[in-house]
Amino acid sequence: MPNYERILLTGAAGRLGSVLRPGLAHLAKKIRLADREPLGDLKPNEEAAIFDLADMEATIEAAKDCDAIVHFGGAPHECVWETVLDSSIRGSYHIYEAARRHGVKRVIYASSVHAIGYHEVEAQIGVDAPPRPDSLYGVSKCFVESLSRLYWDKFGIETACLRIFSSFPEPADRRMLWSYLSFADCVRLVEAALTAPRVGHTISFGISDNKVKPVDNSGANHLGFTPLDSSEPAREGVEGRTPVPDPLRPSVRYLGGWFCELGHPDDKPAE
């Protein structure tokens, strides 16, 4: 029996949204798919809502009759400030106002490792470590984590902020041997956050059961997330085709990887 009447999934046409779209289908009678891009043919239990998260009225309307929101929309990586501001900061505020106005009681938010990207890999931080964003993209994730805390404390809207590390079809480089989150484990994490009896305001790391574990996720055990995949089957291939990196480089020292070596996205390249 479905847990929800209707779930709103933002970013439904994106890399992870496209995986969550079928992965979460059994949890609701209807899945309302939201994106700026076309969504293709709809399944019988799917609805489409095409709009920009920067449009407050459209965002609020999209949450009507929903009893949970899986918010994976917004800028997918580091980009210019105006895009981060409109899609990730304003857009997420619109999502929480939509939840408040329509009485949605639970939001699952796609936060990121880049909210804590300047912690060192060896620090073994827990979910209560202070934010250390590595980019404007990371700053937007910290903003929404704080915003969701406010909406829990003041308005009783539960949120699980999932700090997703590297979620791709398979590990692509040496960093992903410890930061990898398989698509299947990503679906398991979101499902756990949707079905846990109580979430309150929870921060959880999104990472598979890799041999090297750079963070301590025990503070989110109440979600009931058990990763079943690992990067180990890919280790030999990755190590065989990629050189050993300089351990002193910021991209190796810090959790945020190559984001820690990026300049300001608004700077114009030198001619």
UniProtKB/TrEMBL annotation:
Keyword Oxidoreductase: yes
SUPFAM superfamilies named among the record's database cross-references: NAD(P)-binding Rossmann-fold domains
Record-linked Gene3D superfamilies: NAD(P)-binding Rossmann-like Domain (3.40.50.720)
Segments for region (Disordered): 223-246
Lineage: superkingdom: Bacteria
Statement: the UniProt record of this protein carries the keyword Oxidoreductase: yes
InterPro entries in alphabetical order: Epimerase_deHydtase (IPR001509), NAD(P)-bd_dom_sf (IPR036291)
Any one Pfam family match given in the protein's UniProt record, by short name: Epimerase
The family this protein is said to belong to: Belongs to the NAD(P)-dependent epimerase/dehydratase family.
Name of the protein described by the UniProt record: NAD(P)-dependent oxidoreductase
